[in-house]
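Hey Z.,

So I finally got round to the glyceraldehyde-3-phosphate thing we talked about over coffee. Here's the setup:
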Amino acid sequence: MNIKQYLDSTYLKTASQAGISEEDNIVVVKNAISEAIREKFKLIMIRPEYVSLAKEMILKANSNLLVGTVIDFPQGNSNLETKIKEANEAIKNGADDLDFVCNYEAFKNGNVSLIKEEILMGTQIGLANNKTVKWIIEAAALTDKEIIQLSALIKNVIISNFKEEDYASVFVKSSTGFYITENNLPNGATVPTIIMMLENASPLPVKAAGGVRSYEDAIQMIRLGVKRIGTSAAKTIADGNNTTNQY
Ligand SMILES: O=C[C@H](O)COP(=O)(O)O
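And the result:
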């Protein structure tokens, strides 16, 4: 088991979120891409405006690193037209993986037809262009019942509309990593959340993201059955692998 091949190394802050200048943010992004190339992670996950830069660096380095980006991030409440436009732009720039934020607020408000339509359309565009598609449910914004229902809804849209051979390319993903909970409660890939997702999304794969910080956290997620881990601590996790191989 090569843990690095589970890791979507992630840097999704804007310059203002990071509290630095635009130029300095580009330096952070470049360093993250270089590190991901060097470390042979599965993928570098960056904001859409940096996809072309990542592709150029990867080409120059003759690396197999994949590039992922986020669509309608982090709130997921744009209309379908905006989501599709962002997805097409990311595809044009060469992104390999498209991590869409579900319109989870609409789902919570009972607008099931809207969310079904965006899942169908977004997945269609991704798969037609040979991309991997992930649907972020923003688990911390949902009740347990809603986590179960939304995971199952995504699964049902996919199995009713796509071929079995496509299932492995459509993930259900836990979190943006940007959701602020009241009282600072855990906002990401907790064990109970991931178990509910795995049980209800299968046969679709699950990506654990949000708060996965250590080698132990990552191994726990892999043992549960996730196929990818999105994390801003990929190097720490990979370094943990040097000392103990728990598999
Ligand atoms: O998609 C991945 C998340 O943004 C990563 O969250 P994290 O910063 O808690 O590792």
